[in-house]
Amino acid sequence: MVRSLGHPQELAVALFVLVLALAALVARAGPAAASHGDCTLSATAPSSYLGTAVITSGSVDCASTKSVLRFSIALSKDGSLVSAHERTCHKASTCWSYIFADDPPGDQRYCNSVSARVGSHSLPAITRCEEEVSP
Q1: Is 21 in the same domain as 78?
Q2: Is there a single domain that holds both residue 92 and residue 112?
Q3: What are 62-88's pLDDT values in tens digits?
Q4: Pairing mode of beta strands 39-43, 53-77
Q5: Terminus of the chain with fewer CB atoms < 10 Å: N or C?
């Protein structure tokens, strides 16, 4: 049986409980900071995987939760783009990705470049390279 709230005091109590519940949800999620000063980029040097593939990864890591993080990673071989990936993370403090690509026999120089945007601010891109020599 559902009982209607007829008295003003009952309405006020119900509204108060609802407001407290919503406040608890918002507090639990944590505020999103607009600043980009607490964010850093990281990248791994590309490395051979079982001699037939190359793998690399990177991330943008922030000390506080951000509304929007946009992360890009690009793998190049001898100066030519092999693969790229972009990722958008919402209400997060970390955004990361990886690239896994074929590694043909021979000598190649692979480089991993990562960049990110925190809100509307771009972080300076970083690049890590590693030369591979086939046996």
Answers
A1: no
A2: yes
A3: 999 999 999 999 999 999 999 999 999
A4: antiparallel
A5: N
